[in-house]
Amino acid sequence: MEGIAQAQPNIALVKYWGKQRGGNNVPSTPSLSITLDALWTRTRVEFSGAHARDLVVINDKSDEAQRQRVARCLDNIRQSTGRDLYAMVESKNNFPTGAGLASSASGFSALVTAACAALDADLDRDQRSRLARMSSASAARSMLGGFVALDVTETDPAARALLDQRDWPLEVLVAVTSTNAKSVGSTQGMLQSAATSAFYAAWTDSAGDDFTAARRAVLRRDFQSLADVSEASCLKMHGVMLTTKPALVYWNGATVEIIHRVRALRSQGTPAFFTIDAGPQVKVVTEAAFVDNVRQAIEDIPGVVDIVPSALGAGARVVDEF
Ligand code: PMV
After folding, report:
1. Are 308 and 295 in contact (CB under 8 A)?
2. Is the CB of residue 136 below 6 angstroms from any atom belonging to ligand 1?
3. Which atom of ligand 1 is nearest to 139's Cα?
4. What is the distance in A from the centroid of ligand 1 to the CA of 192?
5. Which residues are CB-contacts of 8 (< 8 A; sequence separation ≥ 6)?
6. DSSP sequence for 85-112
């Protein structure tokens, strides 16, 4: 009873930061993302009567906190499928884990996809997206490729496809400015922001308008409008983070310098915009013809340790090889 799956991280252009009360891991705001192609998580799940508990190895290491998080996700799958076997889980990433590169998004969507394949579970993509969301809300979005929406008007939402990656083949440059794991994880950070940031209510009140504007920009393939709303949503989320007590300062000096360079590029006519999650990496979104131009503008910034180019990619899927 083995399943192997691959999923890729997604980058939110309209962000979510904060969860609804009720314990079902539903974001307090709608979000809109793009799924990447070049970064991936591969996960193998093997259920067997021989295991006395779930065993988890991520990037060749075992960690009890991660084991428990994976086991909780498998518990939800066992509950949905009526199966009660424990599993051996092996997972690997081709990029740094827990450093603001959305490893939980690709990780949990690969885990749910591999586990459902191993159990031959009769769960459709919406059900799998919901199961992934229970463990990491952004993982719901990595179930799908291209441009993806996670609206929160339903009580148990699943991510929905907005536009296929082939219909608007944008490119992303991931500027890595640190490979250290972040000091405050997103679940903890969101709780602190909701409880202490004076900006939190304004953030949740205005997110619906950003989501609507971004959705429209994607459907019209309107780069300038998508750039405006994406940068505004990113900076608003970081405004909430910065005003959390104690403050969540995820940026470093290189992060800020990239922001300035990208804004300067756009004012000179290059289609490019930035977005930043709960970490110091900057993702620059552009069009294929401008990838070299953008790379040249940011690669000499002190502190930029790597630039990973990526097209937009597909959703989580079963694969043959681990
Ligand atoms: O779903 P989580 O716990 O991985 O949190 C994701 C939070 C952000 O990446 C900062 C924003 C987003 O919408 O992906």
Report:
1. no
2. yes
3. 1
4. 15
5. 35, 36, 37, 38, 39, 40, 41, 106, 142, 313, 314, 316
6. -EEEEEEEESS-TTSSS-HHHHHHHHHH
Give the number of other Cβ atoms within 10 Å of residue 160's Cβ: 16
Task: Provide mean pLDDT across the span 303-307.
Answer: 95
CB 169 within 8 Å of CB 50? no
Domain 2-164 has CATH 1.10.10.10: no
Tell the residue number behind the tokens 């590169």, with chain if given.
101
Q: Could you tell me if 22 and 201 are in contact, meaning their C-beta atoms sit under 8 angstroms apart? A: no
DSSP assignment letter at 185: -
Q: Is 138 in the pocket of ligand 1 (CB under 6 A)?
A: yes
Q: What is the pTM of this model?
A: 0.96
Q: Is the peptide bond before 246 cis (omega within 30 degrees of 0)?
A: yes
Tokens of 311: 């097209």
Q: Report pLDDT for 168.
A: 98
Look at the block and give the residue holding tokens 């620059």. 284
Q: Delimit the domains of the chain by residue range.
A: 2-164, 171-311
Per-residue model confidence (pLDDT) at position 100: 62
Q: For domain 171-311, which architecture applies?
A: 2-Layer Sandwich (3.30)
Q: String of b and e for 201-235 (b: at least 16 CB within 10 Å)? A: eebbeebeebbebbbebbeeebbeebbbbbbebbe
Cβ contact 198:243 at 8 Å: yes
